[in-house]
Amino acid sequence: MSGLQKNSRKVVTRPVWADVSFSALTHNLLAIRKYVNPPEEKRKTPRKVLCIVKGNGYGHGGPQVAQALEKAGSDWFGVTCTDEGIAVRKAGVRKPVLILTGFVPGEESRLVEHDLTAVIHRCEQLALLDRAAARRGKKRVPFHLKIDSGMNRLGIATMDVECFARQLAKCKHLQLNGVLSHFASSEVFTNTLAGQQTREQEDRFYRALEHLRALGVDPGTVHLANSGAIVTRPETWADMVRPGAILYGYHPGYEPVEKREEFEARLSLKPVMSLRSKIINLRRVPAGGGVGYNSTFVAKRPSCIGVLAAGYADGVHRSLGNRGSVLVRGKLAPIVGIVSMDVTMIDVTDVEDVEIGDVATIYGTDGAHRHMASVVARSVGTVTSDLLCAVSARVPRVYLR
């Protein structure tokens, strides 16, 4: 057999994959951009959109979705670390990339080399970045400043604004291009500490910003709004917004629950990823027969049990055992027994004409049918992003235009 013939053979792989719809992704980005730029505002400069592609693009493939989003008009990208930023750059993305958690000592040279924009969240990071810029002969390396407005995670304290301004004045190779903060509870509207937190964070942030301006420091682009704030709090939109989960088709879990329908109706989204697997075996199990490890499921009737070629090492949340379901031939089939590392069992007794090779949608879309990852996540007490990010590297992503 010739080399050409060898290379042209179809490669058959384990039947688990994730369909990623670039058309749905583009729809979501354009819907977000339109939503945060209402025509009645008559802004001279439209608000920018920084697309969050950290965590391997919420499991969708960071470099691949960044490529698609750049073509669709994303202004900025946000990643967690230098390595994620470099991966996006190597995919050919040229728009600015913000390193959201900053850098650790020793990373700053690679950051400057690959034209990545650091987030400074401790004053002592300024000198490190300034020296790295000087070594590479850069006159002005841009960075953004993060202010901790109350999440108590990352960012300089509001009381440290003067210290920051003094340190910045010593840095001849740096340029402050943006100031940001992050909301802890923007989706919460209950009469609780969390429900009041966003307004308090806004107040602290804007007081710190005015202090910065009073010290003669131009903040550049101001950005605050994450997914929850984008949808529900237009007063937080500032100069740029940072969509994460909503970019991939899912609203956060607004509280109180009664508000969810109202808020979700404001911004129509399309789910981008569908996680799928094929049935690789069918077993007839008599009434009283146990299924899977420790027989945590016992058939109450003669049952047909399907075995999917996907388990928790692929992204099927282990807590879905005996609680979740999948779509098969347009019907929901319960997940039964403990989810294994590599396979999952489903009860397909009521799925007419089911056969080996049928496709099961673990979450996502199946023709006109939807099995939303948000609903699956809530059923096991987690967030949608947890499910999306859990889709492992061994699951091939199939990118659909």
3D structure, described in words:
The chain has helices at 3-8, 22-35, 54-58, 62-71, 82-90, 108-113, 125-135, 161-169, 193-214, 227-232, 260-266, 373-379, 384-389; strands at 16-21, 48-52, 76-79, 97-99, 117-120, 141-148, 156-157, 174-180, 221-223, 240-241, 273-285, 290-291, 297-298, 303-308, 325-328, 331-336, 344-347, 359-366, 369-371, 397-400. Strands 2, 3, 4, 5, 6, 7, 8, 9 and 10 form a nine-stranded parallel β-sheet that branches. Strands 11-14-17-16-15-18 form a six-stranded antiparallel beta barrel. Strands 12-13 form a two-stranded antiparallel sheet. Residues 1-8 have low confidence and may be disordered. It is built from 13 helices and 20 strands. The radius of gyration is 24 Å and the shape is elongated. The chain has 401 residues and is α/β, with parallel strands linked by helices. It has two domains: 36-266, Alpha-Beta Barrel (TIM Barrel); 273-400, Lyase, Ornithine Decarboxylase, Chain A, domain 1 (Beta Barrel). The relative contact order is 0.13.
Write the layout of secondary structure elements.
Layout: H1 3-8, E1 16-21, H2 22-35, E2 48-52, H3 54-58, H4 62-71, E3 76-79, H5 82-90, E4 97-99, H6 108-113, E5 117-120, H7 125-135, E6 141-148, E7 156-157, H8 161-169, E8 174-180, H9 193-214, E9 221-223, H10 227-232, E10 240-241, H11 260-266, E11 273-285, E12 290-291, E13 297-298, E14 303-308, E15 325-328, E16 331-336, E17 344-347, E18 359-366, E19 369-371, H12 373-379, H13 384-389, E20 397-400
Parallel strand pairs: 1-20, 2-3, 2-10, 3-4, 4-5, 5-6, 6-7, 6-8, 8-9
Antiparallel strand pairs: 1-11, 11-14, 11-18, 12-13, 14-17, 15-16, 15-18, 16-17, 18-19
Helix pairs in contact: 4-5
